Amino acid sequence: MNTKKILLLTGAIVVGILSLGFFAIRNAVETIASNGDCGMFNLDHIELRAAVDIPASTTISCDYDEVKKRNTTIFSVDRQSLNMHDYTRRYGFVKVTSVPANFAAFDAKGISKVSKKNLYLRKGQTPTTAYSMLFDMDSGTLWSDLHYLNE
Q1: Does residue 88 carry a pLDDT above 90?
Q2: Rounded alpha-carbon distances, angstroms, from residue 29 to 22, 34, 48, 69, 136
Q3: Which of 22, 84, 116, 142 lies in the 20 to 30 Å Cα band around 109?
């Protein structure tokens, strides 16, 4: 075989391998983004849908309501490893003095214990998701509320 054929064959193999890798990664991201339940990729799913990094957590409690198209998750953040002021600033959390009703609807017992002094809210919407996140710096609790639109 001459050099030209070897180069063409090598190039085709490289393009094939890169294409397979690209499609595998794209498929994995699409699977995570579309998986709204509380399964294995719940944390990654919330991060993709709300464009936020969820800090290291000691406990996670999740509920998925397929009828309401709603994913509610409560994270107990590892306060030792997180600069909370930097976190709230980096992700656009805004200080609030009261708890929005949607959070009381899914965690009334936990929300009732929250100190209103260090409470931060982040809300937003994408074409597929309306999200709100509430962060209590005193307890290190992060509530996430995702509503799926048009799905």
Answers
A1: yes
A2: 11, 9, 9, 20, 30
A3: 84
pLDDT tens profile 89-109: 999 999 999 888 888 888 877
| Torsion (CA) 18, 49, 119, 115 in degrees, nearest 10 | -110
Coil vs helix vs strand at 106 = helix
- For 147, the token pair is 């509503």
Average pLDDT over residues 79-93: 92
* Average pLDDT of the chain, as a whole number: 83
Alpha-carbon torsion (45, 50, 53, 59), positive or negative: negative
121, HSE (Cβ side, Cα atoms, 13 Å): 16
Angle at 117 between CA 111 and CA 123, to 5 degrees: 65
Q: What is the dihedral of CA 133, 136, 142, 147, to 10 degrees?
A: -20
Token output for 39: 């399964």
